[in-house]
Write a structure and sequence with these properties.
two-stranded antiparallel sheet, four-stranded parallel beta sheet, 9% strand, alpha/beta, 257 residues, 9 helices
């Protein structure tokens, strides 16, 4: 159920009966020459919508701008500073609890948000306000991603290309796939991104001239559908697992005597 499509009388009873909320989060940032800036938040919203429809969980509006300063050199990229992002998401979540929601899944599709969402979840857990956990779609199906694509890439590669191919094919510039591969970085592990155990870069442009990583040329609609359905299934299972937990299981444990 998408909460913003409902009226308040319709929500009065449904919210009192529902304790789980899915909060989609992403970014508005460059995704190479072949994918839209909306890539991450489109993926998060589509997955959250599909899981909410199947489970009956509440889906909130999407948080579309995240922590993306490492893509700032590319025109159009938007970002918020990390402290403000954490405070916003924390406040947003605390106010969900006012309506009876006490457990939240941050349906995340942007790597730059991960550590900050986990920090927000820790804060909320410490004071017993809510149980909020970060879920990153590709981390839920790593074996499938590896099986489908030879050169994945952490950003604007085949896995994200496949997801947008399934969700919003009209936004994919498939005539730019070879450009994304040839002018980007296909093999991150074979580059100087890490030297003697040290991460040597701060911005994506340090490694990829066009902001793309990996090889999107082997994406097909069939692979795209399989990827989306597998990630959705993982989110559905997580939502149902969370719903089945007793509140006492989720609260912080007492100090060891």
């Amino acid at each position: 159920m998408y909460i913003a499509d409902q009226t308040w009388p319709e929500l009065r009873e449904s919210l009192s009966e529902e304790s789980v909320a899915l909060v989609p989060l992403g970014s508005t940032e460059q995704h190479g020459p072949h994918l839209p800036l909306a890539t991450d938040h489109l993926i998060a919203e589509a997955l959250a919508s599909a899981a909410a429809e199947e489970t009956g969980a509440v889906r909130t509006p999407t948080i579309t701008v995240g922590v993306s300063p490492h893509h700032r050199q590319f025109p159009g990229t938007m970002w918020v500073d990390a402290p403000e992002f954490r405070d916003y998401v924390e406040s947003f979540t605390r106010h969900l609890t006012y309506h009876g929601i006490d457990r939240v899944v941050y349906v995340n599709a942007h790597g730059g948000n991960v550590q900050h969402l986990r920090e927000v979840g820790r804060r909320l857990h410490e004071d017993g306000e809510a149980y909020a956990i970060e879920w990153m779609w590709d981390e839920s199906i790593p074996e499938l991603v590896d099986d489908l694509f030879e050169h994945n890439g952490p950003h604007a590669g085949p896995k994200e290309t496949a997801m947008i191919t399934h969700i919003a094919p009209d936004l994919v510039r498939d005539d730019q796939f070879e450009n994304a591969r040839d002018d980007g970085l296909v093999d991150l592990e074979g580059s100087d991104a890490r030297v003697h155990g040290a991460r040597t870069f701060y911005d994506s442009i340090d490694n990829s001239a066009n902001g793309a990583f990996g090889d999107p040329t082997d994406v097909t609609p069939q692979k795209a559908e399989r990827l989306f359905e597998a990630a959705t299934d993982q989110l559905v299972q997580l939502t149902e697992w969370l719903r089945a937990r007793d509140r006492d299981e989720l609260l912080p444990k007492d100090r060891v005597a």
